Amino acid sequence: MPDATSQPRSRAQRITDTLAMLQSPARDAWVASASSDDDGAAHPYLIPLSLVWWDERILLALPAASRTARSIAATSTTRLALGHTRDVVLVDAVAEQTVPVADAPADLAEGYADQADWDPRSDPEGYVYLVLRPLRIQAWREVDEMPGRTVMRDGAWVT
Amino acid sequence: MPDATSQPRSRAQRITDTLAMLQSPARDAWVASASSDDDGAAHPYLIPLSLVWWDERILLALPAASRTARSIAATSTTRLALGHTRDVVLVDAVAEQTVPVADAPADLAEGYADQADWDPRSDPEGYVYLVLRPLRIQAWREVDEMPGRTVMRDGAWVT
């Protein structure tokens, strides 16, 4: 519960806080993806992964053969949660590129290693970077912050 | 990173810790669900919700019209994460029942209110309890705990 003196954050403050969270070292996110059967039945999936904010994009590094990588490649969409359930940042993103770690441009790979607490180049076999472009970001702490929670819409910060 | 003296927890300890997390007051979970288009394209969704452990089941309370409630009703499946990304409890569950809050048996509604920090009966219109049966639960902290992370399989604790 918010304490009696707390006020909902302004949208500008939420954008500042969201960027700070996206850029913080050794940051993990919950990454949700979905797949569908041949008969069209949808299946949810969810795992924690290191998240890096680089060049206005989100980078993930994971095995190309993993369920999450395959689902995001197939559907082009993912939804990610950062923070905890009472200091939420939720991101809807589209997959822009899949880059094998062994073939990645140096600036991308350096960007990943600089923020994450590991470097997939140390054992790149089978690993890829997913480059995700955020389309919508929502940020809230408690119920009083539900209004105004959309801080990015259609890929643009809401100012 | 685990400190040099840490040891992977035993499976028995992980089950104890998992139950403690499931039963803790005012517990939230990240709830992933999936829906599919008419053309079979799958879409992931993810929101935080209060979670209650009751009678070997997980209870959620949410608007029947919400995307999460509709997706879980349609697919019968959800995947939930508790804890944080370096003390993970991941649950694959199936929907067993959807119970309108206004019609819920007293023991279920009391069970929800006892553990959660709110009571949907205070404004029940349009709200339902989802009764979820866990099929698989995984629990790990760091990479050294990836082996042995499955603590429930096919609905039974792995002992």
Kindly list the characteristics that best describe this protein:
homodimer, about 160 residues, alpha+beta, Pnp Oxidase, Chain A, 3 helices, about 20% helix, globular, Pyridoxamine 5'-phosphate oxidase (chains A, B)
Explain this structure:
The first copy, chain A, is of the alpha+beta class and 159 residues long. Helix content of chain A is 20%, strand content 44%. The first copy, chain A, is built from 3 helices and 9 strands. In chain A, strands 1, 2, 3, 4, 5, 6, 7, 8 and 9 form a 9-stranded antiparallel β-sheet that branches. The first copy, chain A, starts with 10 loop residues before the first helix and ends with a strand. The interface between A and B is medium-sized, with 32 and 32 residues.
What's this entry about, in short?
The structure is a homodimer of 159-residue chains. Chain A has 3 helices and 9 strands, in the order H-E-E-E-E-H-E-E-H-E-E-E.
- Percent helix of chain A, as a range, is 10-25%
Our Rg estimate of chain A from Cα atoms comes to 16 Å
Q: Structural class of chain A, please?
A: alpha+beta
Largest sheet of chain A: 9 strands, antiparallel
The greatest inter-chain interface is formed by: A-B, 32 and 32 residues
In total, the number of strands of chain A is 9
Q: Could you give me the name of the CATH homologous superfamily of chain A?
A: Electron Transport, Fmn-binding Protein, Chain A
The helix/strand order of chain A is: HEEEEHEEHEEE
Q: Could you say which overall geometry of chain A the principal axes of the C-alpha atoms support? A: globular
- The separation of the N and C termini of chain A measures 27 Å
Q: Residue-averaged pLDDT of chain A, rounded? A: 94
CATH architecture group name of chain A: Roll
In CATH's first tier, which class of chain A applies? Mainly Beta
Q: What portion of residues of chain A belong to β-strands?
A: 35-45%
**DSSP helix count of chain A?**
3
CATH fold type of chain A: Pnp Oxidase, Chain A
The figure for the number of domains of chain A is 1
